[in-house]
Amino acid sequence: MYSSKGLLQTIHDGLLNRFGHTTPSVPAQGCRPLISHDDMTTGTPVTPGGDGAATYGTTATDPPKDIRESTSSSEAEAAAVAAGLSHLEAHDTRWYSYLLTADFWVVIAIGQLLSLCITGTNTFTSFLAGVGTIIPAFQTLFNYALLTLIYLPITLHKHGLRKWANIVLRDGWKYFILSFLDVEGNYFTVLAYNYTNILSAQLLNFWSIVCVVLLSFFLLRVRYRLVQVAGILICCGGMGVLLASDHIKGTNGGQARDMVKGDLFGLLGATLYGISNVFEEWFVSKRPMYEVLSFVGVFGVLINGVQAGIFDRAAFEGATWNGQVAGWLVGYTLCLSIFYSLAPLILRMGSAAVFDVNLLTANFWGVIIGTRVFGYVVHWMYPIAFVLIICGLVVYFLAGSILGDSKKPWLGDNQKDGVAGIGTAKLKALNAARKKGLVGGAEGQA
Question: Where is this region: Disordered (predicted)?
Fold first, then answer.
């Protein structure tokens, strides 16, 4: 008769043999565990049966192979990032060091391209309003639909359907809030122009910069240096010159339908813009850009579609529809989609503050384009204003850091919580480690 333990062992061995598995021989005692307490604490590999014929190569404390490989890869990447950041920041940086980097000029170039996109959307909106097609929510719906068509397939291809579904369950509500802030910021800003004059609405845009600085300081732990605050103030001074020239020429819009209502709408729109810009900077520093833009598109279609159905229905029925209007809508959508696609780059390489300050030059480009389209005359103060805004950006980056604003304080030591994407400090560090061979295996990991 077998003892109860011997019987269970026999049944267990028989089942394993039945399905083609074999079991190592065990000592006569039958019940001695393969790994003793000492083996588990010392991490010594065990040879079952004591004959050395087979070794497992792991101990009870070892994680599975794929986990070990993932951990090893993460550790190698962290070491490469640390070495790369140390190398980049160890340079003898001077007050003008960042101005000599390609990143600075890329930030300026992208910022001006974004300003041109904003000018393009304003121009096409003016064309639409000129023929009585005033549909602020509906015309933006096409932008979100285009973002969805471009970036959702990329996201599904990169992540796979199951991982994408997990992201929806885990972070979908965060992306919904980001899209909601963006949609409503667009809507109330456009609505403000229908009630207040242009001068008042543009002055209220300064509030978005204030919101960005305050939110970044208190929520994202960004610490601005005096030279950066001075740069922002110089940029705002340049914008003030632009507004003053408009007032002198009498192109500030004159009397408004309802100044109080328009100013409140403008203040709300600027606040929502500021919050959404900071939130998007936080997102794109942690997640791939294509993922962020895909969710902005998907939720933007839903939110903006409902809003357009409620508030633009009457205006939609009374609007003018012809081939020319369709062309203006296409132009508006393309300009806005390019804007949305490039915005994450400047948020990574710079910051939400740099993003908003760059957009102050949109008024300058608007007048330049207006001279060809609407017959505007360039006032002598406009070039001064443009130069002041660019000088303010230069002053902003005179902080002596070779990485500028790309190194985000909320990503932890060595940017461990960030994504190694285009424009991020983490990718710059990995590339520096690979190029200089600072860490063994860093090149392969980078």
Answer: 46-73
Own/partner long-range contacts of 303-306 (Cβ < 8 Å, ≥24 apart): 303/176, 303/179, 303/180, 303/183, 304/137, 304/140, 304/141, 304/144, 304/183, 305/141
Q: How many residues are present in the chain?
A: 446
3-class DSSP state for residue 402?
A: coil
Query: Could you tell me if residue 351 is left (phi over 0), alpha (psi between -120 and 50 degrees) or otherwise beta?
Result: beta
Terminal Cα distance for the chain, rounded: 63
Ramachandran category for residue 20: left, alpha or beta (phi over 0 → left; psi -120 to 50 → alpha): left
- How far is it, in rounded angstroms, from Cα 91 to Cα 333? 44
CB–CB of 47/25 below 8 Å? no
DSSP 133: -
Least confident stretch, 44-48, 93-97, 342-346, 384-388: 44-48
Q: Which helix (H) or strand (E) holds 301?
A: helix 289-311
Contact 380, 370 (CB under 8 A): no
pTM, two decimals, is 0.80
pLDDT in tens, 46-68: 333 333 333 333 344 445 555 55
Buried b (16+ CB within 10 A) or exposed e, 156-181: eeebeeeebeebeeebeeebbebbbb
Round to whole Å and give the CA distance between 122 and 144.
17
The Cα 396–Cα 235 span in angstroms is 9
**Contacts of residue 10, Cβ cutoff 8 Å, sequence gap at least 6:** 2
> Among 203, 308, 219, 214, which Cα is nearest to 263's?
203
Q: Cα separations (Å) of 44 from 32, 47, 59, 69, 170?
A: 17, 10, 7, 20, 40
The answer to whether the beta carbons of residues 421 and 348 sit under 8 Å apart is yes
